[in-house]
Design goal:
This protein has 394 residues and is α+β, with helices and mostly antiparallel strands. It is built from 13 helices and 15 strands. 43% of the residues lie in helices and 19% in strands. Helix 1 crosses helix 3 and helix 1 crosses helix 6.
């Protein structure tokens, strides 16, 4: 095989794991906000036919529920999202056994080469920290890209790495401000004045006088210190300039905007509208990328386009509804017969019904009975109305 051709003339050899920006606590907190939301996702194998969506149970769903022996689903999602923000590229290797999916492993290569064989099929050669090197067909990899722009194969800049030049300037400014605050605090604990003794005393007496003054300061609780005629206290007029909170907030928000995380999301003091904006701007595009990358790698074109197979990472938006909004959602869903009893219980934090058959029943608004019972009730009402004597007074 030979190196894949790139239209911009660069060699398709990419170094991973740039970590300069991750020394910043603000950067880590911002990414952590995104990771905590994405790990709530629920990956499902679905099949869409004639406008109907059906959940598919089988080995693919089993692996989505238990990706590999080392990770739960939330661990797995957390790992690939952290890799994505570390490198702007995240690789997952599906493991197959006789065309049966058995595991999904997130990869952390240090170098990635893109190769082509004589038939122009793409391969990826990866090297890892322990010296291991392996080559895999690119179509067999799950590759999620972030900021996919100038490079043909990788997310990030033309070298396939995160372009953090602008962010590093903000981080450097933030670090300078924090160091200034630290120095100002240290100087506030420094010497604040001197005591001048208006007489000539030798070194030993000066040391004794100093110990006497120190002991008096230690015992003092009023904040005032008496001095005799020999002593004179001369304070230092030190003006300590602290960085104002507005400036620090501006720098923090400038860094957070780079990752699409508003300050209220970071502090947890957000409104529903703020969370909705954060979800639509930052989380939803990641969900779209995950859906398409997993579907492309786990299914052939015939399986996905012809038979409607796909992987969808579902997000339960009930998680950020208020109680009132949840009640309204249940009412609307029940009026259309579009919600199960167990789903109503889950919306309010209750466990499923012990009777699984009852829990899986769809309900409608008439006393929240099952769909079938409401239909029967309506039929009985219609039948009763037809049998009534129109001239009867009762």
């Amino acid at each position: 095989m030979k190196y894949a051709k790139m239209l911009n003339g660069y060699a398709p050899i990419f170094s991973q794991f740039g970590s300069d920006i991750y020394a910043s606590d603000v950067v880590q907190q911002a990414i952590n906000c995104i990771v905590r939301e994405t790990k709530k996702l629920m990956p499902k194998h679905i099949r869409t036919a004639d406008g109907k969506v059906v959940m598919v149970s089988g080995n693919i769903q089993n692996v989505l529920d238990n990706p590999n022996p080392l990770m739960t689903t939330s661990d797995f999602i957390e790992k690939i999202i952290w890799n994505l923000f570390f490198n702007y590229n995240s690789f997952v290797l599906p493991m197959w056994d006789n065309d049966k999916l058995v595991a999904l492993y997130p990869l952390q290569p240090t170098f990635v080469d893109f190769l082509q064989d004589a038939s122009s099929e793409y391969f990826v050669r990866m090297r890892f920290n322990n010296g291991y090197e392996g080559t895999v067909r690119y179509s067999d990899l799950i590759h999620i890209k972030f900021n996919y722009s100038v490079n043909e194969f990788m997310g990030g800049n033309e070298s396939g790495q995160p372009d953090n030049a602008a962010l590093l300037k903000s981080l450097d400014l933030n670090n300078t401000l924090l160091e200034g605050v630290a120095k100002a605090l240290k100087s506030s604990f420094a010497i604040n004045g001197v005591v001048k003794y208006n007489t000539l005393i030798d070194g030993q007496k000066t040391e004794a006088a100093l110990q006497e003054l120190t002991e008096a300061l230690r015992r003092n609780e009023s904040g005032f210190m008496p001095l005799d005629l020999k002593g004179e206290f001369i304070p230092f007029n030190r003006q300590i300039q602290m960085v104002d909170s507005t400036t620090l907030k501006f720098i923090d928000e400038k860094i957070l905007r780079h990752f699409g995380v508003p300050l209220p999301i970071l502090t947890g003091d957000y409104t529903k509208a703020q969370y909705e904006a954060f979800f639509q701007k930052t989380i939803e595009p990641l969900i779209v990328s995950l859906n398409q990358a997993f579907t492309k790698a786990l299914f052939t074109n015939r399986e996905s386009s012809g038979f409607g197979n796909s992987v969808v990472f579902y997000y339960n938006k009930l998680n950020f509804m208020t109680v009132g909004e949840t009640i309204e959602f249940v009412k609307i869903s029940a009026s259309a017969g579009a919600i199960r009893i167990d789903e109503i219980r889950a919306a309010f934090g209750y466990p499923p019904c012990e009777d699984q058959e009852i829990g899986n029943m769809f309900v409608m608004s008439k006393n929240y009975g099952s769909v079938e019972s409401v239909k029967n009730m309506d039929l009985n009402e219609v039948g009763g109305a037809q049998n009534e004597d129109p001239e009867s007074d009762t």
